[in-house]
Amino acid sequence: MSDAMLPDMPFNEPEPDAARDEVLTAFRAADPDGKRMAAIFRSTFDQLYDGQHTGRYRWDQLFKTEKTHFGTLLEINIRKAFDDVIDEPADSDPLDYKVRGHHVDCKYSQRDGGWMLPPECFGQLLLVATADDARGTWSLGVVRASDANRNTGQNRDAKSTLNGRGRKQIAWLHIAASLPPNILLGLDATTIEAVFAPKSGQKRVNELLTRVTETRIGRNTIATVAQQDDYMARLRDNGHGARTTLRKTGHLIPGGDYEVHRQVARELGAVIPEPGEVVSLRVVPAAEADPWTTELDGQHWRLARKDETCHEPAPKLPSTKQAKPIVPEASDNGRLI
């Protein structure tokens, strides 16, 4: 990635700083591919949207005061998820974290380079973060708030910011990395309007699963659309849930909590849902010799083509009554999109 793509984040080799490098090494060892941290950024956005109770899923739907709370939530969520890296600070510690014996303050800004630095972090290490849900990106790095790295001017709260040199001194863990997708944010206006139009939470979930197929859809998305306490019940094959209703239009909805459902998606050559997710698939009868088929209800099935009409109801999924659910990895931070 070039400097031109992110002009506010210069890609120069930072000067030596042994403590900074120890902090970097600790986080890299615990999360080499950034999946754990990406899940934290995703869950923090979702936590702030509180879609289950508000129906919100976009940054511009938040109040200004809510947006300013993102940094506090992120700091707390990183500490909880990375308790294998971050030591519990003493009550007297002025900064957020202690990593490998080094004091570290966590700073978030919606704008690259906009981190506000209070006097207590001057000279200390900073874990600086930024994220953009609309672009689907996040960045995280470590820098020292030394005199040379800070602007000399301060606001009335005595807070400072990183200067141009300071931004060049950031040692990046990840930069413009991909966020787990915000499914609703990626839908066009017509689809969004259709999904949220029904007054019934069940009908909204049905509309979502009718229109958004072959895409992993997680708990948080279902919660935002259903806006009910028992939102996952909207999926059930119980006579009035989505699996029952949408079967009539050829929709098969395997979930990622059980391997027997994941295997159905795998045999169809479809995207495989992770624990806490479902995927809506349009299926049609197939010949036994056809590629990418699954056998259900004594018949072979394949994915329907986009221009193909489903004339027969979809089959029932394998029973999960005797199956143990798959437990998500701890790195998922307990939140799913």
From TrEMBL:
<dbReference type="Pfam" id="PF09126">
    <property type="entry name" value="NaeI"/>
</dbReference>
<keyword id="KW-0255">Endonuclease</keyword>
<dbReference type="InterPro" id="IPR036388">
    <property type="entry name" value="WH-like_DNA-bd_sf"/>
</dbReference>
<dbReference type="InterPro" id="IPR011335">
    <property type="entry name" value="Restrct_endonuc-II-like"/>
</dbReference>
<feature type="domain" description="Type II restriction enzyme NaeI">
    <location>
        <begin position="22"/>
        <end position="309"/>
    </location>
</feature>
<dbReference type="GO" id="GO:0003677">
    <property type="term" value="F:DNA binding"/>
</dbReference>
<feature type="region of interest" description="Disordered">
    <location>
        <begin position="311"/>
        <end position="337"/>
    </location>
</feature>
<dbReference type="InterPro" id="IPR015210">
    <property type="entry name" value="NaeI"/>
</dbReference>
<keyword id="KW-0378">Hydrolase</keyword>
<dbReference type="GO" id="GO:0009036">
    <property type="term" value="F:type II site-specific deoxyribonuclease activity"/>
</dbReference>
<dbReference type="InterPro" id="IPR037057">
    <property type="entry name" value="DNA_rep_MutH/T2_RE_sf"/>
</dbReference>
<dbReference type="GO" id="GO:0009307">
    <property type="term" value="P:DNA restriction-modification system"/>
</dbReference>
<protein>
    <submittedName>
        <fullName>Restriction endonuclease</fullName>
    </submittedName>
</protein>
<keyword id="KW-0540">Nuclease</keyword>
